[in-house]
Amino acid sequence: MTIATIPPNSDIDSPWKPAIATVSLGAADLHPITAKLDAAAHCGQQGLELFHDDLVQLARTLRGQATDSLPRTDRDYEIDAAHLLRDLCAERDLHILALQPFRHYEGLIDPERHMERIDELKHWARLCTIMGDSLFILIPSSFLDPSEIIGDRDRLAADLAEAADVAFPVRIAYEALAWGTYINTWEDCWDVIQKANRPNLGICLDTFNIAARLWADPTSPMGRLPASADQDLQDSMARLVREIDPDRVLMVQLADGERVDPQAPFLHASGMPTLLAWSRNARLFPYEEERGGYLPIREVTETCITRIGYTGWVSMEVFSRTLGDDNPAVPVEHASRAGQSWQRVLKALGEGLQKGPTQVSME
């Protein structure tokens, strides 16, 4: 493929800053974080969602290079890795904006597991303060079996309030995963956030998760839910404009979904929700229709950004089966695609501002 270098100042007049998730630049055990940082900086990204797997992999590398015989824990090496990542990013003029994903936290029935997660959260908060002064921790909605978590909204809100208090002043972003056991729409997510009512607690809006839940069905011949899904999505986007406070949006994540064969084996993995299997294997960067992107991403993106008046970080978060390729070119290939996608996003947002709100229609 042709690798495009995106000038760092190509979106200098934009009220939004481009970022990318490190997981979108290659698998942690195959592609070193330094290669990912170089690729991101080279292709115009300014910020990073740091996946914990990448930090852990760097910590393992540091452990392997250690020459002293002092007893040290995995967390000690993660702290070393956090210091190193802060310096590596500063050298490349990259900003770490989030550490994620802090999975399967809220609603745990087992109190011991809950306390273990709280202890881990304290460690994550320390890592965040090392890597910068404005990082947040992203908590995706849990998709554990109902035998392990409860869906009571008051309990979920209490757990999030506790997380915000424990992490303070580090911020917490809560995100609804389309396959979440109890919280799987932005409306569910926002309701819990409001109930928790903490100043350092906000929402993460993800175009893939919103569109996947309300509109898509990768196992159907048409790749989507029935025609009524158009109106459902339009109604949801209208509610989002009315209800979401843009100051409480900590990040907007962008991704499209690939139109795949409904019989693709990865869609039918045993014990895995279909939307989760699709997400892990077949996300695309926005406006990659030439690669099979087909979700109503433009409408969702415009709503989550321009229609609510959001300014700040906009991050590409793409999971794909292509990230597991051990080709060393993967980081720069994906960073280049992300850079090209970002320019398409900016163009579309500019057109949307000129035309006004769009109506959802995917005929």
TrEMBL record:
InterPro entries in the record: IolE/XylAMocC-like, Xyl_isomerase-like_sf, Xyl_isomerase-like_TIM-brl
Superkingdom of the organism of origin: Eukaryota
Residues annotated as domain Xylose isomerase-like TIM barrel: 37-342
Protein name: Xylose isomerase-like TIM barrel domain-containing protein
